[in-house]
């Protein structure tokens, strides 16, 4: 795909100079550029991140897809950075860098799911709050949930998705559409504006992430490119956000967190490689009053530069950072010869985490990129923007110099000890539904790059098949997933644990219960025991009808991870079938303690109270469950059953009559039968 391969010419750059204490360099700099209203002392700041958006699919960056009219219009009012590079091609590590200025290997956040932000990593929201700003975050995917550590410093962290209401835990939504996130953000911003309170808001839009399923109107506009349809939808949400703030007193920074390979170099998505398809992203900054509108900066910058830039813009206290303030690049009087690319370091650790393959590192500077891997690479991006002609070995001078710069950055001391932890099995299941693969429970070596480790380039075909199988499961094409994993298992027996787990899940979902049990048991023999494996085996035995073996394995799952709410609920359900009411109540109680608004936990406790003929308690629990999940028709059916047992036939009839109109055929049919018995 076309890229701005020749866009490395320098516009301007000067080294940061000392600034009068308490004064924002950006504010001081731009205030003298035009004779317009004064820059506010504490400007509002809106940070918008769009997940998985390639720079070359944005019109302002040369994209011809026509998917970004709002971003393109915004670019005319903003400063656009033509060469902005992400630190990692994964959502959570990249966002930690955006919000802290710290590179992934130093923050300890290298992959999604297991890693979380440690207390020693300085986050923007804390600094804004310390200066009296009201802070709010509105995110669209489980990957950046509050438990990731990103919530620190935010007065409000909205990661509760309305689209989840009424859904069973096992099919719980792990993302929400951009319009839902946007509506929540705009409501909060309006409240801050009405209170005349300075605010810092972060809005995260996840829509361009696979699987690509744009809303119908956008799908119709891009019938041959659903990825661009998703970008167009996110663009429409961004338009609403821009319209919801006052341009005179609000700075807006728009950034992509990473891109998408779309088949380049054999990678369909992102996370494995550090080519420009996944690390070059859009980055635009609209200053209050639209100052410096239409400026384009060709000097290379990094997403690590975002945090120090916003700190200086709002007059916040400085903090340690691997990035630099962008203000010097905006100085209209800076000599062009002083502007040189800021060396951009990127790392890809996803395949290392999942399969133990070698990590990949990249250093991009001066129009070249050096990639450190078992098979090293060097590209002249001006002549070869698609990174197809590996010049490593032909240009030894450039290779040595970029390798030296990379090594100097990699030698920086981490801010804290490793922040990885065992992945919550429930989170692992939900991350899988976002298309992310779970890794092993073993310690991961993220540092060693040598010929003894698998170079991801050599096995990208296997990786793509694994992701294709996971995507088939994600889109509920279970038979297709089974076929993919069968072929993978035959072709790559050394990948057994990863393949076996997903293959077992696909078999379970297609009713191949015996095969699923066989595969889960093979996993337990070939890999470190994992709570999710015992959970899956427990569910499989339940489906086979052996509730005792189901309970045995679910008990192992919760013993390994007592915070797995779904496993507790399933264990309670199995014990209920076994008529072990006291222990069933214990399991449902554990789930309710983990999540007091879990409709399934409350419903399970209501079932036990019903069996014990405590109908009043059962009714109260069911009403709480219905309040938590008002769209769950089964809960109302159970309430009618309780009211009938209490002798309140009138209320029972009314509920059954309402449920005969349910969109769930099984519930409607059961309600009609129950109603007939009351006539």
Describe this entry's structure for a reader.
This protein is α/β, with parallel strands linked by helices and 679 residues long. The chain folds into three domains: 25-327, Alkaline Phosphatase, subunit A (3-Layer(aba) Sandwich), CATH 3.40.720; 425-612, Alpha Horseshoe (Serine Threonine Protein Phosphatase 5, Tetratricopeptide repeat); 613-679, Serine Threonine Protein Phosphatase 5, Tetratricopeptide repeat (Alpha Horseshoe), CATH 1.25.40. An eight-stranded mixed sheet has the order 5-4-6-1-7-9-2-10, with helices on both faces. The longest helix is centred in the middle third of the chain and has 18 residues, at 226-243. It is globular and about 85 Å long.
List keywords for this structure.
Alkaline Phosphatase, subunit A; Serine Threonine Protein Phosphatase 5, Tetratricopeptide repeat; 4-stranded antiparallel sheet; 679 residues; alpha/beta; 15 strands; 43% helix; disordered N terminus; 8-stranded mixed sheet
Furnish the topology, listing elements before pairings:
Blueprint: H1 25-31, E1 44-50, H2 69-76, E2 79-81, E3 84-85, H3 91-100, H4 104-107, H5 124-130, E4 134-138, E5 156-158, H6 178-194, E6 199-205, H7 216-221, H8 226-243, E7 250-256, H9 276-279, E8 280-281, E9 283-286, E10 296-297, E11 301-302, H10 306-313, E12 344-348, H11 350-355, E13 360-365, E14 368-372, E15 377-380, H12 396-410, H13 425-432, H14 460-474, H15 478-491, H16 496-509, H17 513-526, H18 531-544, H19 547-560, H20 565-577, H21 581-594, H22 599-611, H23 615-628, H24 633-645, H25 649-659, H26 665-677
Parallel strand pairs: 1-6, 1-7, 2-10, 3-11, 4-5, 4-6
Antiparallel strand pairs: 2-9, 3-8, 7-9, 12-13, 13-14, 14-15
């Amino acid at each position: 795909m076309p890229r701005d391969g020749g866009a490395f010419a320098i516009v301007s750059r000067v080294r940061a100079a000392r600034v009068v204490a308490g004064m924002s360099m950006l504010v001081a700099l731009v205030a003298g550029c035009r004779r317009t209203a004064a820059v506010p002392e504490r400007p509002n700041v809106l940070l918008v991140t769009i997940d998985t958006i390639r720079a070359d699919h944005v019109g302002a960056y040369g994209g011809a897809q026509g998917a970004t009219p709002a971003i393109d219009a915004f670019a005319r009012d903003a400063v656009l950075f033509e060469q902005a590079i992400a630190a990692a091609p994964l959502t959570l590590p990249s966002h930690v860098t955006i919000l802290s200025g710290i590179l992934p290997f130093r923050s300890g956040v290298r992959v999604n799911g297991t890693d979380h932000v440690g207390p020693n990593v300085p986050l923007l929201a804390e600094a804004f709050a310390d200066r009296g700003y009201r802070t709010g975050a509105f995110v669209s995917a489980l990957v950046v949930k509050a438990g990731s550590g990103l919530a620190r410093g935010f007065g409000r962290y909205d990661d509760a998705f309305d689209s989840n209401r009424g859904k069973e835990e096992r099919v719980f939504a792990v993302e929400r559409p951009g319009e839902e996130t946007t509506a929540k953000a705009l409501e909060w911003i309006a409240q801050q504006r009405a209170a005349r309170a300075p605010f810092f808001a972060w809005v995260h839009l996840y829509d361009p992430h696979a699987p690509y399923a744009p809303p119908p109107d956008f799908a119709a506009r891009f019938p041959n490119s659903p990825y661009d349809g998703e970008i167009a939808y996110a663009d429409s949400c961004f338009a609403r956000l821009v319209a919801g703030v006052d341009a005179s007193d609000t700075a807006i920074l728009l950034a992509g967190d990473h891109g998408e390979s779309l088949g380049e170099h054999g990678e369909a998505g992102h996370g494995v490689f550090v080519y420009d398809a996944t690390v070059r992203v859009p980055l635009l900054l609209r200053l209050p009053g639209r100052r410096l509108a239409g400026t384009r900066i060709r000097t290379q910058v990094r997403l690590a530069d975002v945090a120090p830039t916003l700190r200086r813009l709002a007059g916040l206290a400085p903090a340690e950072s691997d990035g630099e303030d962008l203000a010097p690049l905006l100085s209209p009087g800076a000599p062009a010869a002083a502007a040189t690319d800021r060396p951009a370091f990127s790392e890809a650790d996803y395949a290392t985490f999942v399969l133990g393959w070698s990590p990949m590192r990249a250093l991009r500077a001066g129009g070249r990129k050096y990639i450190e891997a078992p098979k090293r690479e060097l590209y002249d991006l001006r002549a070869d923007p698609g990174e197809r002609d590996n010049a490593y070995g032909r240009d030894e001078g450039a290779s040595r110099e970029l390798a030296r710069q990379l090594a100097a950055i990699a030698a920086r001391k981490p801010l804290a000890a490793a922040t990885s932890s065992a992945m919550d099995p429930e989170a692992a299941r939900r991350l899988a539904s976002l298309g992310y693969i779970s890794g092993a429970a073993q310690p991961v070596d993220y540092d060693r790059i040598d010929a003894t480790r698998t170079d991801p380039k050599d096995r990208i075909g296997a990786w793509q098949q694994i992701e294709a199988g996971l995507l088939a499961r994600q889109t509920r094409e279970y038979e297709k997933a089974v076929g993919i994993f069968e072929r993978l298992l035959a072709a790559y027996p050394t990948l057994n644990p990863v393949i076996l787990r997903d293959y077992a899940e696909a078999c379970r979902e297609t009713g191949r219960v015996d095969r699923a049990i066989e595969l889960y048991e093979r996993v337990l023999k070939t890999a470190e025991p994992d709570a999710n494996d015992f959970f899956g085996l427990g569910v499989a035995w339940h489906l086979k009808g052996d509730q005792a073996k189901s309970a045995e394995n679910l008990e192992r799952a919760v013993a390994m991870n007592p915070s797995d709410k779904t496993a507790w609920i399933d264990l309670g359900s199995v014990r209920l079938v076994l008529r072990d009411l006291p222990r069933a109540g214990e399991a449902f109680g554990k789930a309710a303690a983990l999540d007091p608004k879990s409709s399934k936990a409350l419903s399970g406790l209501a079932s036990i109270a019903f069996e014990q003929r405590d109908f009043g308690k059962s009714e109260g629990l069911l009403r709480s469950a219905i309040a938590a999940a008002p769209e769950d028709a089964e809960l109302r059916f159970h309430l009618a059953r309780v009211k009938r047992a209490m002798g309140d036939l009138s209320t029972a009839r009314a509920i059954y009559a309402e449920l005969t109109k349910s969109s769930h055929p099984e519930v409607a049919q059961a309600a009609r039968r129950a109603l007939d018995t009351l006539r």
